[in-house]
Amino acid sequence: MSLFKQITDKPWERKGIIGGLKPEGTFKSPAERVALNFFLVAASIVFSLFGVSYYIRMELPDWLPIAEPTSLWFNTGLLVLSSVLFQWARNVVGNGGSKNVKLAFFGGGVFAILFIAAQLQTWEELQLAGVYLSSNPAADFYFLLTGLHAIHIAGGLYVWIKCVFRMVTGAEAKEQRLSIELCTVYWHFLLVVWLVIFAVVANT
Amino acid sequence: MAYVPLADQDHEQELHHPHSWVEKYVWSQDHKVIAIQYGGTAVLVGLVALVLSLLMRMQLGFPETFDLIDPNAYYQSVTMHGMIMVVYMLTALLLGGFGNYMIPLMIGARDMVFPFLNMLSFWFYLLSVLILLASFFVGGGPTGAGWTLYPPQTSMAGTPGHDMGIVLMLVSLAVFIVAFTMGGLNYVTTILQYRTRGMTLMRLPLTVWGIFVATVLGLFAFPALLVSAIMMMFDTLLGTSFFMPAIIESGTPMDYEGGSPILFQHLFWFFGHPEVYIVALPAFGLVSDVLSTHARKNIFGYRMMVWAIIAIGGLSFIVWAHHMYVSGMNPYFGFFFATTTLIIAVPTALKVYNWVLTLWEGDIRLNAPMYFAIGFIFTFIHGGLTGLFLGNVVIDLPLSDTYFVVAHFHMVMGVSPVLVIFAAIYHWFPKVSGRMYHEGLAKAHFWITFLGTYAIYLPMHYLGFLGVPRRYYAIGETDFIPASAQTLNESITIAALIVGAAQLIFIFNILWSLRNGAKADPNPWGSASLEWQTPDTPPVHGNWGDKLPTVYRWAYDYSVPGAKSDFIPQNMAEEDVEMEDSAAKGA
Predict the structure, then answer these.
(1) Which of B403, B407, B509 is nearest to B454 (CA)?
(2) Domain architecture of chain A: domains with CATH
(3) What's the whole-model pTM score?
(4) What is the pLDDT of residues B454-474, one digit of tens each?
(5) Which residue among A8, A9, A15, B572 is least packed, with the fewest CB closer than 10 Å?
(6) Is A67 on the interface with B (CB under 8 A)?
(7) Mean pLDDT for chain B overall
């Protein structure tokens, strides 16, 4: 039964296990995926509201745009690679295979760690160039947004580490299919968030 | 990969079985224990907030007689009372308490989807409460910036708690949001994924619908509070200027420039208005079930009630700036927000009509829960009607920041949900504890609370019309407020003290009945919804024994024509329903 049909149903007219209704829950996705989807919406709202605040704050006269460091292109490359590797692992495991899954999944996380390290390096560069927290609002937002984004990646890495640990201690890659899928979705989400942050910083 | 059909797994829903007393009652992963932990903490912290309000009332009613608090303590009490009641008491009690207890039982599940996360949710909540209360004991005390925490005054020397107090408040809120998110993800996922066989969305009791939509609102609205708390924390601790404008403090320019206080207000109310409905929607749901059960009638317009909950939830995100009419905005914005505010009255009024029509020609049983539920209809209508005044820009401008506003929001989102909470506690007490409460004490509690509420808040509307400003430690002498206003203030204070004291009756009744109450039937009200059909009362770990229930009908089959019993439980198949002889013959 479609969602629309469900919420337009007249429950007082229907008794018994109603016609055509399968015994399972309406939404076949695993619970973890449903929870992740809700979390992604909530996280999107957090980043969007920071985005709105960014544009509102930008209108005020003391705003001095920062020159975005060129190293951000390199950092972006690392995060793209990370996402690509996760997608690779997901594709293989989704097709029932297991070849190179562990390698790709492991690599995906490593590139994410490298991304965080590279972002920290960029922070250093900026501070050497005199752009630091509370120096001006554009810089404040830069550090805030990149920091928050890195914290979200770190949260993902926690799940990733747990999954890697299970694989190292003998779990088959196939058994980790759901974890791999959800990590991939989450990484793509964070890649998109990063691309938007990068675009906003670069264009303002 | 074939996922196991969730509702078809009597045994597959893995349960964490406790092995020790500590695992069972302290680090518990059972939704019922967590619910009671949440509820108990919320009630305790609510009592702190109640005492704070009484301190404020003593000051306002008898400023010369009692010298209990100074102006700083008054502002701190205002702030802590508001924040505790809205976030740490109502939100936690309705979602953490009732949400946790009701969801799995009402949808026919053994527990929440993620029991461990659920446990973490409570402990994070407790941590947030402790951090908040710790601010009473730090130098400078808790913040006195008002529960809205508007910058710049939150961080300025004239505001009590401008150093540690505000930091602890913001940290506590952030921890609370983490706790809520963990709990909230659990509630929505459990409702969507763990419904038992036959429990379609439109067979869910309205309690579950209210909690579901309120949780979704929470998941989408608390981020705004988080965002504003983070930026304000940066401003306070790290010297950024997100919200703090260039400002002079005691003759010295502060180290800020260019921030936007209005931006904070927008973010705060983008959370703050949905928050009203985060509190109201679960209350709407609970009261619908209490009314229907004790009126022995199906809820009137079930589908409309569901859609109204969804519509109110959606609309609640586009009305926030009606809290900011006096902050200044483009007149077209004001027009837009006034319009959306008035539109939200439509689904809300629809719900009120449906509650009243549920009572119409019902076989009403005036038990204590029903007293409170009907009392709620009164207070909610009164609070709702004054909302129509304040939703209009031109009427709001003179009334803003007067006692009219205080009266309005206390009626609509203070007293009303609290009456529902009492109704719900009395209604479900027999299932939760296995014992009956004392009916006489409960009714005494109702009458004092209900009439006392009116004695407190009706005169406040009048004070508001006179122009008595809110948030003032003492009114002093003015040209426009007559001296008789003080007499009203005295009577309000006396009523508030009586109502405050009457809550001891409730606490005594609950504690006394836990030990000495008469043994309760498994289903003393003859309720049709699933939580009353558990094999054990109180329900044991795992809720349903060997087999999950199967649902054959909606939760409101009361007084079904021809049926022998005046209710048919949700898990009773059509062929098991006993019909009256004449009806059987007729058929």
Answers:
(1) B407
(2) 32-203 (1.20.120.80)
(3) 0.95
(4) 999 999 999 999 999 999 998
(5) A8
(6) no
(7) 93
